[in-house]
Amino acid sequence: MIYDDRAQLRADIRAHLLANGSRNWRLLRYRYSAVPPTTWWRLIAREKARIGTQHLVSSDEKIVTARALSAAEGELKGIGASTLPAGVPGGRFDFLASFHNLFADATKLRAHALRADGSVRNPILLDRAVKLRLKLIRQGLELERQIYSANAQRAFYDALVAEIAAESAEVQRRLITRLRDFNRVSDPRRTEEP
Q1: From residue 28, how far is each of 12, 42, 114 by CA, in Å?
Q2: Considering the entire predicted model, what is its pTM?
Q3: Cα-to-chain-centroid distance, residue 72
Q4: Each residue of 26-71: pLDDT tens digit?
Q5: Which of 28, 71, 97, 165 allows an S-S link to 172, with CB 3.0 to 4.6 Å?
């Protein structure tokens, strides 16, 4: 085939990269045998760069790029931070939705690292997918531990306030007022009652 249609050549290279990675070029190379080798490899390098600069490849292509993986790892590092990510509307951050999305991306990354028969296509990508999934599981367990601890602390304070209320309603009101003031000072975004 003559290579007058450079757009089709780029599309075929892209499709091959997404389906097979950087392996098994023989058939496609035969189809575009008129393309000089230096041009051929330059086009492949450009398509790899284009794929790598996207935030996420569409879900129907069943792949997550290395840049997207790095973005996911960066987002994980910020989970424990006291400030919310930039651009979060209303100061709220839906951690669980982000966690599920990141875990789905790690699963897609693992699926891309394996062939249809279950054998390993890309061991480096599989290793990164495993590490990312382990990191996500650790983060999830840490979050669960913190939630359990917060719930236990809340139950303790509720029991304490209930016992104090049984003895003196005035002391209970003063205690609740002080707890509310403390919560407002410690977290100005907090709107719920203790």
Answers
A1: 8, 15, 22
A2: 0.42
A3: 4
A4: 888 888 888 898 988 898 888 888 876 443 333 333 344 444 444 4
A5: 165
